[in-house]
Structure formats: structure tokens, C-alpha cells
Design a protein that fits this description.
five-stranded parallel β-sheet, binds pyridoxal-5'-phosphate, elongated, 30 strands, Aminotrans_V_dom, alpha/beta, metal-binding, Aspartate Aminotransferase, domain 1, Rhodanese-like_dom, cysteine desulfurase, RibonucZ/Hydroxyglut_hydro
Length: 756
């Protein structure tokens, strides 16, 4: 039954990332295991065990023909689609070596899986073909530009298109493409990547002039490491792997018989009309509709990045308006729902080239979520997935991620005191006093909806929206935010950075905000100091891009002046002390809290200026040199910082962590955002009392330091979902002088999979 529930009772996961890979179906796993243990022969052996293996191999090939409609041509077993693509490209380019075309081109669809363009470029170079590699554009629906193909087909050595896109599920009209290609060029090699089409669309390859079609087992419930390549009769072929002559000499190496047996069972399931493991297209469409409705009910405003009409029913690609893909992914992951941000194979990239090619907006491309299920999904699984998605709604409301429509939403976001909100490396700060009076410093356009929700849901009154300078790289979000907040912003007459013109300070219950001019990075740069009205101690210094974690703002942009920066730094140093938190406008180093002491320790240029080891003139010279140099080696940012050394920090397994927690002075710090806490409660996971768990998301790290939530004498084990954020936080705490910090290696992900 189940194919995307993984049987882990405590933390049942809902796997909705089938376009990345699928679990192996139990009946397929059985035959794979049987082939490893019982029918394990080498198909090349002449004894009975070998003959049985050979029979299985040939039977699978014959079933493959039936599944993909290839009564003739060759069917080769490969390690997967990437090998199939290499084989097709190498075969074509070797055959094309002596071509007579004056300006040869290699064409590929702009939304193709990276395996295709990268393979074309690689072999075009290695084999010295020197063809121009051209991307065929797509329209806003992801459909290939047929006229572009028509224009270039005559000069093409190879044309690569895909049947179904892995990110959006968009399918192409192969018959129409064939008509265009063949009307211009009857000989050009045409490869169609069919990886995502298997089991989702009908294929009849021998009835087409497709020369090569790669497939991959792991995208449809067979194991990883097995695939099939179809080669049209008469198409060019050069063995990509030579050796013992297996596969009639076309692909040497002992065959992956367990994988092939897995395909055998998969093909049987696909061919058996009586077997309903694979659902009809109609059912799959109904499942997508259900998921679509669950998403709309939960998130409200969503932009779908593809038209369902032009895509297979097993994929939904969308961006939640106003939530970043990271927030959505963290939320889903915490609820046990596995989806992907764009394509799993290009994880790390923060834009989708597929959506870019379709002309999607920056927001869509940067925040795309792909939800995909396999065609063997069950109704029960889809129902469960929809229930789980809907169960996120109260969490979203409680965390101001969506505006609540309930009368008394449970408030989990703690906006009191300081919260950092980030967009890429830019930082925006929200300070709220206990009367719920707030100031926003360095607002960011992308975060306006989020900020507006926090203000609305928490009932804040915003007394000022301030910029620390006119950010040259982005538009000011001040006026837009003020407009969005309407009556929740106490609009006064302000200067161009948002400071109320007639006021010396902005009073905030037991504190007040003061403005000091700190030119240097720009002429108009100011810093805002939050000082205690009784003690005059300055807890936060909002300094914009004058000082950045691990560095200083750059002084090679128009209007900047290094000599002025010197004076600003020196005068700030007389106002703040080592415990003041430096709240910058940018953070390229992932330091969430940086106090003045740590800032000096990580910025030698600053420290030596302030302690007199460097004269002002020497500082100016060194700073200008450094900025000039970095301007040529890195992107022009608001400041150039050196990579901070990561502090030596101990990585713990969950077993080590559990053992350490026996010690009275050892605590867990949960660095996840509150909306991720829903499912995995750390106290339960580690079997410790609640008092042993301190919640400090990265957005509240600076606040936690100022509030004295942590004690340098104690041991802290930092935890998050994957071990990355907690590692950054642990690093950050080490920089701040905490000596006993540890990171739970691999985070909660590894505990749940019992891999530690
Ligand atoms: N082509 C497409 C459309 C894919 O989705 C993938 C995998 O993500 C590949 C090719 C590569 O397949 P394999 O992992 O079998 O090499």
C-alpha cells in the first residue's frame, strides 16, 4: 500500500518529492532482494544460474519495449538517465565529427535538466566539435519555441528536448516538435529526455523519429542506479563504456541484475491492466486538485508557477505569496511533509533557472516550492497529506505568517524586545517595548508583508520607521511600509531617513532611541542607539553599514569617505561599551548577534584603530587598499568582510548529546523558529524536562544575549532541523565568548532516521 509514508510511527513522513526520487515499492524491493540472494547469477555465465539471470535480463528488455512502445531499435540497461544522456550525446558528436555544416549548433530546451546542457557543453569541448550550444527558449507556460527550432534545425548536429519537466511537470507536444524538426532536417539526432514521463504519459517511441530516449528507474519506484536508454534503429552509436562486451558490446560491465529485476517488476505493474497500483490520469488529476485546495485553504494567497493544463498531474510548483521558500520548507519539514525548493539536483542554487526561462517573477523563482507525488500514490495518502497541510494553518496564524481570521489566535511569536528579519544578507530590525510600541530599522521591501502581519497580529503601534542611510543597492521600503501599516503607524513629520524632525529621542517605555551622525560609508549615515532611560546603558547600536559583522562598511561607493568613517568609529566607541550589540544593515557572515567586544576581536582594522596601534592616516590607507582590492574580487556589496574563522566547536552525535544532558549544567538550545516546533518537541525527543530546552531562534539571538538568557558557565547543545543553523548559532556563541557550546551534528533529521 503505502509508498510515500515511511513507516516510522513516531514521525510519520509524508513524502511529496517524487520528482526527485521515489521509495522502492515493496513488491519491487522483494524481487530486487530475491535477485541479490537467490537469482543472483551473472548473465554472462553459461551454467544454469547464469542462464536464469540472462532470461530475467532479456525478459525485462522485452517488457521495456512494451512499456515505451519500442518494437524495434535498441534497449540498453544503463546506470540511470545521466549515463543515457552521455551515451546519446557522445554517440551523436562522434558521428558528427566530420560534419560539413558551416555554423553548427547543438540545441537544448532552456528548461532541460542540467544533465543535458552540461553534457552537451562538456563533450562539445572534449571532442573539439566547436558547435555553438544554444538554449531553445520557452514561453511563459514552459512550452518550447517551435519557431526557434525551425530556424536553427538545419544547422543542428543534435536537438535535445524533454518530454516532461522535472520542476513544473510541463509536457511538450512531441508530435508537433517532430514535425518542425523533420520538416527542416531529416538527419539531425533528436534526444528526448523521458525520465519524468514514464508512468505519467503514454509513449510509443518506435512510431516517432526520436533517436535517443533516456529513462531512470529511481523516478518510478525502482532502485537508484538503474536506467534504460532507447536508441532508434540506425541512429549513431558508440559504446560509452567498453570492456567485457556485455549488452552486445554496446555497454560493457556486469549488468546490474537486481536493478534490472526491479525494472522487470515495475514494467509488469505498468503493463498489467488488472493491477491498479498505478492510478489513472483521471484519478491523479483529482489528487492534484485536492492538494491544490488544501494549499489554498492553508496559505490563502499562492502563485502557481505553471498551468495545470500543460503539466502532468503529479506536480504542483508554486510560491506562497509573502513567505520565502525557506520558511515554507522549514514549516513543511517540521510537520513531516517533504517537498523541494525547485529541483533537488540543484539544491543550493537559490533561483530556479526553469522558472527564470519561463519569465517568472524574482519572487516566484527564488521561492518556488515543488510538491510532487508518484502515480502509485493512494487516496488515503493524499487525504492524509491534505489533512497535514491544513493542520499548519493555526501554526501560520500564531506566528504571524498569515493574518489570522480567528478571533483569538494563539500568539507564539514573541515580538517584545528585538527581532531580526532578514532577506538574503540584508537585515531589518524590529524593536518592541512592553507597551507594544515599536520601531522598525532598515525595513526591506521583500519583508513588508511579513512585517505588516506581525504588527497587525500582535497589535503593535509603530512609532518610527527608520533607515540608517539611503541604501544605494535598494529602494527604501520606509514609505511603502508606512502606507501598509496605515493607522498602526504614528506618522509624524520626519527627515528623509524617517526620524521625527522635532524630536531629540524616541521614547520607548524604559528605554529611548537616540540618533547620532556616523558618516563614512555614506554622507547621510546615522546610527541609532537604544539606551536605558535609567542607567543610560546602550544595549543596541543600529549602525547600518558602518560596521558589519566581521568587517566595516565599504568606502568606495559614491559619497563614502574613509576619513569620516574614522571619526564616526571613534565617536561611537566613546558612547557604547563591550556588551553593546552591534545591529548592522547587512550580515554576510551569518553572525546573528555581535557585541562590540566580539566585533573588535573579529575586525583587526577596527581594533587597531581604536587602541591607537594604527594612526588615522594608516587606517585610511589600509582600509582604502582593502576596499579597492575586494572591489575587484567580490561583488560590490555594502561592505567587504573577511571570512570569519569558524571557532573550534565540538560536533555531537545524538547519543553523545543524550549522555551530556545527564549533567545538570547542560542545556539544549532549539534554534528553530517557533513555527517549526509543532511536531518535534525537543524535550520529548531527548527525554529531558522542558526547563532543559531554551528556544532561541536565530532571529532572536541578539535579543537573547542582551536579555542575559545564557550563562557562559553552562554547557549548551545547539539543535535545529539539519544541523546547519545550529552550527552557525554555535559559531556565533563561540565568537561571543561562550566556551562550552556544542552542535548536534546532522540535527533532528539524523535522530529521526536513526542514523546516529
Ligand atoms: N532528467 C530529468 C528530467 C531528471 O529529472 C533527472 C533527475 O533528476 C535526470 C535527467 C537525471 O537522472 P539520473 O538521476 O537517473 O541520472
Amino acid at each position: 500500500m503505502a509508498n510515500f509514508f515511511l513507516p516510522d510511527d513516531a514521525n510519520q513522513q509524508i513524502y511529496l518529492d517524487a520528482n526527485a526520487t521515489t521509495p522502492v515499492l515493496p513488491q519491487i524491493a522483494d524481487v530486487v532482494s530475491h535477485t541479490m540472494q537467490v537469482c543472483f547469477g551473472n548473465p554472462s555465465s553459461s551454467h544454469i544460474t547464469g542462464i536464469q539471470a540472462k532470461y530475467l535480463l532479456e525478459q525485462t528488455r522485452s517488457k521495456a519495449r512494451d512499456v515505451i512502445g519500442a518494437s524495434d531499435g535498441d534497449i540498453l540497461f544503463t546506470s540511470g538517465a545521466t549515463e543515457g544522456i552521455q551515451t546519446a550525446v557522445v554517440s551523436t558528436l562522434i558521428a558528427a565529427k566530420n560534419h560539413q555544416i558551416e555554423n553548427p549548433v547543438l540545441l537544448y530546451g532552456a528548461t532541460e535538466h542540467k544533465a543535458v546542457p552540461n553534457t552537451l557543453k562538456h563533450w562539445n569541448n572534449v571532442l573539439d566539435i566547436n558547435a555553438q550550444v544554444l538554449a531553445i527558449p520557452v514561453d511563459k507556460y514552459g512550452i518550447l519555441d517551435h519557431e526557434f527550432i525551425r530556424k536553427h534545425a538545419a544547422n543542428a548536429l543534435m536537438i535535445c528536448t524533454m518530454a516532461v519537466n522535472n520542476e513544473t511537470g510541463v509536457f511538450q507536444d512531441l508530435a508537433a516538435i517532430e514535425q518542425v524538426i523533420r520538416s527542416e532536417n531529416t538527419r539531425v539526432a533528436w534526444m528526448v529526455d523521458c525520465v519524468q514521463a514514464l508512468g505519467k504519459t503514454r509513449l510509443a517511441l518506435s512510431q516517432t523519429t526520436i533517436d535517443y530516449a533516456p529513462f531512470s528507474g529511481h523516478k518510478l519506484y525502482a532502485p537508484k542506479g538503474i536506467g534504460v536508454l532507447y536508441i532508434r534503429k540506425g541512429s549513431a552509436y558508440t559504446p560509452f563504456i567498453a570492456g567485457g562486451g556485455q549488452e552486445s558490446g554496446m555497454r560493457s560491465g556486469t549488468e546490474n541484475l537486481p536493478g534490472i529485476a526491479g525494472l522487470n517488476e515495475l514494467f509488469s505493474l505498468l503493463l498489467d491492466k488488472e493491477n491498479h497500483t498505478f492510478k489513472s490520469l483521471e484519478q491523479l488529476h483529482a489528487f492534484r486538485k485536492q492538494l491544490h485546495e488544501a494549499l489554498i485553504d492553508t496559505f490563502g494567497s499562492i502563485t502557481f508557477n505553471h498551468e495545470f493544463e500543460y503539466s502532468v498531474p503529479t506536480t504542483l510548483n508554486f510560491a506562497v505569496n509573502e513567505l520565502t521558500s525557506k520558511e515554507v520548507m522549514d514549516l513543511f519539514d517540521a510537520a513531516g511533509i517533504r517537498v523541494s525548493g525547485g529541483s533537488a539536483c540543484s539544491s543550493g542554487a537559490n533561483r530556479s533557472f526553469v522558472l527564470d526561462a519561463m519569465g517568472a517573477s524574482d519572487w516566484q523563482s527564488e521561492n518556488a516550492i515543488r510538491m510532487s507525488f508518484g502515480p502509485a500514490v493512494t487516496e488515503q495518502e493524499i487525504n492524509y497529506a491534505c489533512d497535514k497541510i491544513r493542520s499548519l494553518k493555526p501554526i501560520l496564524e500564531a506566528n504571524c505568517l498569515v493574518v489570522s481570521d480567528s478571533t483569538s489566535p494563539q500568539q507564539e511569536v514573541c515580538a517584545i524586545d528585538l527581532t531580526q528579519l532578514r532577506h538574503q544578507a540584508a537585515c531589518c530590525w524590529l524593536y518592541v517595548d512592553s507597551n507594544k510600541h515599536a520601531v522598525v530599522i532598515d525595513p526591506i521591501i521583500e519583508l513588508i508583508p511579513r512585517m505588516a502581519k506581525i504588527v497587525a497580529t500582535q497589535g503593535l503601534l509603530v512609532k518610527a520607521i527608520l533607515d540608517t542611510h539611503k541604501h544605494q543597492e535598494r529602494l527604501s521600503a520606509r514609505c511603502l511600509l508606512a502606507k501598509e501599516l496605515a493607522e498602526q503607524y504614528v506618522g509624524k513629520e520626519t527627515d528623509e531617513l524617517g526620524w521625527p524632525v522635532n524630536d531629540e529621542t524616541i521614547p520607548l517605555n524604559t528605554a529611548r532611541l537616540r540618533k547620532v551622525a556616523t558618516p563614512g560609508h555614506s554622507q547621510d549615515s546615522v546610527s541609532y542607539l537604544l539606551e536605558n532611560s535609567l542607567t543610560n546603558d546602550i544595549s543596541y547600536c543600529f549602525c547600518g553599514d558602518l560596521i558589519l559583522p566581521g568587517g566595516l562598511g565599504n568606502t568606495v561607493i559614491s559619497g563614502s569617505d574613509t576619513a569620516q568613517m574614522v571619526q564616526s568609529l571613534k565617536s561611537l566607541a566613546t558612547l557604547i561599551d563591550d556588551t553593546t550589540l552591534i545591529c548592522s544593515g547587512h550580515d554576510y557572515q551569518q553572525c546573528f548577534a555581535m557585541d562590540w567586544h566580539a566585533q573588535k576581536a573579529t575586525t583587526p582594522l577596527l581594533a587597531t584603530l581604536l587602541n591607537g596601534q594604527l594612526s588615522e592616516a594608516e587606517f585610511i590607507e589600509l582600509k582604502q587598499q582593502a576596499d579597492q582590492q575586494k572591489q575587484h574580487t567580490s561583488h560590490p556589496l555594502c561592505g567587504y568582510v573577511d571570512v570569519l574563522e569558524s571557532s573550534p566547536m565540538k560536533q555531537l552525535t545524538s547519543t553523545d548529546a543524550k549522555a551530556m544532558l545527564g549533567d545538570q549544567a547542560t542545556y539544549l538550545i532549539d534554534t528553530r523558529e517557533p513555527y517549526e516546533h509543532g511536531v518535534a518537541n525537543l524535550a520529548e525527543v531527548f527525554n529531558v524536562e522542558n526547563a532543559k530546552v531554551i528556544n532561541i531562534p536565530l532571529s532572536r539571538m541578539a535579543n537573547a544575549i542582551v536579555q542575559g538568557q545564557l550563562d557562559k558557565a553552562k554547557n549548551y547543545i545547539l539543535v535545529c532541523r539539519s544541523g546547519n543553523r545550529s552550527k552557525q548559532a554555535a559559531n556565533n556563541l563561540s565568537q561571543l565568548g561562550f566556551e562550552h557550546v556544542y552542535n548536534l551534528n546532522g540535527g533532528l533529521a539524523l535522530i529521526n532516521s536513526n542514523q546516529q
